[in-house]
TrEMBL record:
Chain ranges of the VWFA domain: 385-576
SUPFAM superfamilies in the record: vWA-like (SSF53300)
Protein name per Swiss-Prot or TrEMBL: VWA domain-containing protein
Region of interest (Disordered), ranges: 332-366
Membrane-spanning ranges: none
Gene3D superfamilies xrefs: von Willebrand factor, type A domain
Segments of skewed composition (Low complexity): 339-357
Top-level taxon of the source organism: Bacteria
């Protein structure tokens, strides 16, 4: 999260500028004097580093006069952390963003939002904010994402003469004597996410997709970064060495993915050891500052927003951006901009230039890659206590056409086994199976008790490998109630206590409790002080979404259904990433 807040400003002036409707675009003409019959206030929230430039341009526009018909326009520009606005937008539109948390009670959604990256729009769209089209924001500025290193450290690895690739950095951070790399939480920071995407792509290139070698490299990189992660950008910057003493350099932060603007701003403070900006190959996703008009605003405000966008694409605005160490959308810069040493020229392509499509923004981003990166990070870097409950009813024997004929059970076990590799030893995990009459008249059986992975990992792997389908039916309700009681019984503070249950059918235990009885019991057991998060993953076409949702609506958590069992690994990651962060 950025912490370089430059203040929030309400801009309200008002003389007059007429906005004339012409198709879907709007021209304007100056009027001689104030002749407004009313006023509309357009609210705009901008990332803190670009807010002064936007505010200055809006001030000038309003001072010259801005109106729709005979109604004056005032523009209220506030500096707002993108993650805070994203949380508010997600709350309003019913979206889920891994690692973002709840919106603060005072957070409101603006009419126009200028976050630092289109990745926020893509994540909101993927998370369920279907009314928010990810391509509705064209870029008004640009800042390449770089890897920042203290200059002495950068010199040792070949800066500024050597081209450095992400595979080189991966080797540095996962070696026996690793470079101390850090990151701002990538689920809350766009530059951190850009760096994470590039580093995990480099890890994936070490072997076939999903192979043990590739996963080992990826998990190693994630945990190396997590050791020095921070939710506050200013806190991370403070970890860079503040002395030329060799010991201070060795013990300080050695590398972090930041924006070019961050490096320029840091070096402008004249630190004892400046930061070098490494423009890595392949180019990471740059910050592109989309101008996003949020859905649901009044037509007159939308009209005013379209004209303001035109104001923010002028050459004079490029000079305002330069004063904030930002580039124009095409990668060029205005008067006074001082590029860091080694920055490639926009004319020659590279990190400062726009993508090959020439547009940038959300249309050039891969929603699936972003979702995978954020969910994998959330799983690999959090700590929790979990009971994994796996359906072994007879229907789990059915083959999965999209998984080369492997059974539903085999696909489920493979997903759980692969997921196990992402959890570090701070997790405590147990394993149950369930069907009907699996253990005498009992529908469930404990395979492995809930214990720390530091002593339980091998047993869990063996337990998963031993799972075989039975000939029974699906004793879902009795199993869910027993699992909830078990996790609640030994509830552990400081961790997310959860149940993850896999099933391919509806409850069909004639001798078990009813749905109403289950829900009544769960309501009585639920304790806000000791919550148990329930995640249910439905597999195939025989599950009932309504049945699963009725349970998680009471307990908290979420239900996921995939009609293609081969996708269960992706769903598993998304589900585990539902860990509820602290409210914002």
């Amino acid at each position: 999260m950025r912490s370089k807040l430059h203040g929030a400003g309400a801009v309200a002036a008002a003389t007059a500028l007429a906005v004339v409707v012409a198709g879907s675009w709007f021209g304007y003409r100056q009027l001689a004097g104030p002749s407004c019959s009313g006023q509309i206030e357009l609210s705009l929230a901008a990332a803190p580093e670009i807010a002064p430039a936007v505010r200055g341009a809006a001030d000038q526009w309003v001072a010259d006069g801005a109106a729709v018909g005979d109604t004056c326009i005032a523009v209220n520009v506030s500096a707002a952390e993108p993650v805070d606005v994203a949380a508010a937008v997600a709350s309003k539109h019913g979206a889920t963003l891994a690692g973002v948390g709840q919106a603060s009670g005072t957070a409101v959604t603006p009419d126009v939002w200028v976050p630092d990256s289109s990745t926020w729009l893509v994540r909101l769209k993927s998370g369920g904010a279907t009314a928010l089209a990810p391509a509705n924001g064209a870029s008004i500025a640009r800042s390449p994402v770089v890897v920042a290193l203290p200059e002495p450290v950068a010199s040792r690895i070949g800066w500024p003469d050597k081209e450095i690739r992400w595979t080189d950095l991966l080797g540095q951070v996962t070696s026996s004597k690793p470079l101390r790399a850090g990151i701002v939480e990538p689920t809350q920071d766009a530059a951190g996410l850009s760096g994470l995407l590039s580093l995990t792509a480099a890890a994936s290139a070490t072997g076939a997709a999903g192979s043990p070698k590739a996963q080992e490299a990826m998990v190693g990189a994630l945990r190396a970064l997590a050791t020095n992660r921070s939710s506050l950008r200013q806190d991370l910057l403070a970890r860079f060495p503040r002395s030329t003493d060799p010991t201070a350099i060795a013990n300080g932060l050695g590398a972090a993915a930041l924006s070019e603007e961050d490096v320029i701003a840091y070096n402008n403070t004249k630190p004892p050891i400046p930061l070098a900006a490494l423009y890595m190959k392949p180019d990471p996703i740059a910050l592109d500052y989309p101008f996003a008009v949020l859905p649901g605003i009044e037509p007159t405000k939308a009209s005013a927003a379209r004209v303001l966008f035109e104001v923010l694409r002028t050459s004079s605005f490029k000079n305002r951006l330069a004063a904030q160490a930002l580039r124009a959308p095409d990668g060029n810069w205005g008067d006074g901009f001082k590029a860091p040493q080694g920055a490639p020229s926009p004319a020659n392509g590279g990190a400062s230039a726009v993508p090959p499509s020439g547009q940038g923004g959300a249309t050039d981003l891969d929603p699936k890659a972003i979702q995978t990166a954020t969910t994998t990070w959330s799983v690999a870097t959090q700590s929790g206590r979990m009971l994994c409950v796996v359906d072994v009813s007879g229907s789990m024997k059915k083959p999965v056409a999209t998984a080369n004929g492997a059974s539903r059970e085999q696909v489920t076990v493979a997903a759980a086994s692969q997921g196990l590799g992402l959890f570090d030893d701070s997790w405590s995990i147990g394993l149950w199976t369930f069907s009907t009459n699996l253990n005498g008249s009992q529908d469930y059986r404990e395979v492995i008790g809930i214990k720390p992975l530091s002593s339980n990992r091998g047993a869990l792997q063996q337990g998963l490998a031993s799972i075989r389908p039975s000939d029974g039916d699906t004793g879902l309700y009795d199993t869910m109630l027993a699992a909830y009681r078990k996790v609640q019984q030994d509830w552990e503070p400081g961790k997310v206590n959860s149940i993850v249950l896999f099933t391919d059918g509806k409850n069909d235990d004639a001798n078990g409790i009813t749905q109403k009885a289950l829900l009544d019991q769960l309501k009585k057991l639920r304790d806000e002080e000791q919550p148990v998060q329930v995640i249910i993953i439905g597999i195939g076409t025989e599950v009932s979404r309504a049945e699963l949702k009725s349970i998680t609506d009471v307990t908290g958590g979420g239900s996921f259904v995939t009609t293609d069992p081969s996708k269960i690994g992706e769903i598993f990651l998304q589900a585990i990433a539902l860990r509820p962060p602290a409210p914002r």
